Amino acid sequence: MLRRGAVEVPLCVGLQIGAMQGRGRGTGLATTMTARSPWLAATVGAAVGWRPRGRVGLWLGADAIVALLRPSFVTAGGVKVHEAARFGGQVLAGIEVLLR
Fold it and tell me: 23-37 burial by CB neighbour count: b if 16+ within 10 A, else e?
């Protein structure tokens, strides 16, 4: 973490794991099915935090996401109707409270 006065720049590398759920809808469907598919991604990001004094601060961060395991959904006939993107990103903002 880089720090200068009340401003800090934390760097982060991580993993995200979860599942995506899809459900078929439409007038031409013989049956409606729901399916879940696992998702795994690596993330790398940075943030800017500002804590003027005391234990409370604000931060704003951005992460790049690379999917290692991408969910995909297919119809009963084997036609792929959706696959998650390989690359993505997220922007986060928050309030930080130091507990020590």
Answer: eeeeeeeeeeeeeeb
| Cβ neighbours around 15 below 10 Å, total | 9
State how far Cα 70 lies from the chain centre. 13
What is the residue type of 3? R
30, pLDDT greater than 80: no
Q: Taking the model in full, what pTM does it have?
A: 0.73
- Asked whether the predicted pLDDT for residue 97 surpasses 90, the reply is yes
Taking the C-alpha atoms of residue 19 and residue 25, their distance in angstroms, rounded to an integer, is 20
Token pair 């969910």 is at which residue? 71
pLDDT in tens, 31-59: 777 889 899 999 999 999 999 888 899 99
Of 89, 88, 84, 91, give the one whose Cα is nearest residue 70.
Answer: 84
Q: Which three-class secondary structure state does DSSP give residue 35?
A: strand
Q: Are 81 and 75 in contact (CB under 8 A)?
A: yes
